[in-house]
Design a protein that fits this description.
With 294 residues, the chain is an all-alpha fold. The protein folds into two domains: 39 residues, no CATH class; 238 residues, MetI-like (MetI-like fold, Orthogonal Bundle), CATH 1.10.3720.10. It has 14 helices and two strands. It has a two-stranded antiparallel sheet with strand order 1-2. The radius of gyration is 24 Å and the shape is flat. The two termini are 39 Å apart. The relative contact order is 0.13. Its main location: membrane. Keywords: Cell membrane, Membrane, Plasmid, Sugar transport, Transmembrane, Transmembrane helix, Transport. InterPro entries: ABC_transporter_permease, MetI-like, MetI-like_sf.
């Protein structure tokens, strides 16, 4: 047995470490995803007998106006969340300066990241309150009335996304701070010798070394925008009149409150396909330079 272990330990050891995580991923992610796709082909209330309907749930989904409102809101989330990586990078460059008191500033900017999404949602619900919130105090200082953002179907999604951007920018900030701390001093020194300063140093020396960090920040930001749920649930519950609903919340609402698990599974499947398409593009883009270097 010991001889067998010594002969094959170069692959047995990593396999033993990877196996628990791979098993958990297979059961929780792969099997659950397949089961969701299967359930989407049935009419099911979550308790009784499933009734086969084929693609009827998807046909109904394509004819559902609320689906397009949710999809549009997800696109708004995605577009506005694209601000998180550049804002995080800008703050990281600012906080990475050797200035007195920067450690305290880093801690303050890090706070949103450790707060639960529910907490952030509750805080911003108070901020947006037109009667006694922070926004009403600011508008009142100028003698104006604060708008009821969470009650306005035209602005509610933007208000919720701004609240969600706060911790997302903090996450990107932490990623870029870690990347800035691992920059090659030799490359920076060579750039200074060649006369690179300011923007040329940033674009031609610093940013190329942050490429992997940027891809991670972009991937996490996009996935976070597509799977947005908790902030909507805490701040608006999809209202007013479904105007702030996103795909993940619509799936939850149809499954839990309307007992339409087949229809909810169809929404989840569509969201899964969108995420899978992005992840495929992401991995192909990330691995392309490595393939070209071979």
């Amino acid at each position: 047995m010991s001889t067998l272990w010594r002969r094959h330990r170069h692959w047995i050891t990593p396999t033993l470490f990877i196996a628990p995580g791979a098993l958990l991923f297979g059961v929780v992610i792969i099997v659950a995803s397949i089961e969701t796709i299967w359930v989407s082909l049935f009419e099911w209330d979550g308790v009784g007998v499933k009734q086969w309907v084929g693609l009827a749930n998807y046909v109904q989904l394509l004819n559902d106006p609320q689906f397009y409102i949710s999809l549009k809101n997800n696109l708004i989330w995605l577009a506005m969340f694209m601000l998180a990586p550049p804002l995080g990078l800008a703050l990281a460059l600012l906080l990475n300066q050797p200035i007195r008191g920067m450690r305290i500033m880093k801690s303050l900017f890090f706070v949103p990241l450790v707060l639960a999404s529910v907490t952030v949602g509750v805080v911003f619900t108070w901020v947006y309150d037109p009667s006694f919130g922070l926004l009403s105090l600011i508008f009142g200082y100028f003698g104006a009335s604060a708008p009821a953002l969470l009650s306005d179907e035209h602005f509610v999604t933007f208000a919720v996304v701004v609240a969600a951007l706060w911790p997302q920018v903090a996450f990107c900030l932490v990623l870029f701070l870690a990347g800035l701390n691992n920059l090659s001093e030799d490359l920076i020194g060579a750039g200074r010798v060649d006369g690179a300063r300011g923007w040329p140093m940033l674009f031609h020396v610093v940013l190329p070394q942050l490429r992997e960090v940027s891809f991670i920040a972009l991937a996490v930001t996009v996935i976070g925008a597509l799977r947005s749920f908790d902030m909507v649930a805490v701040m608006t519950s999809g209202g007013p009149f479904g105007s702030s609903t996103v795909l993940a919340y619509q799936m939850y609402e149809q499954s839990i409150f309307s007992y339409r698990f087949g229809y909810g599974a169809a929404i989840a499947t569509v969201l899964f396909v969108i995420m899978a398409a992005f992840i495929s593009w992401y991995l192909r883009t990330l691995l392309r330079p490595e393939r070209e270097g071979l």
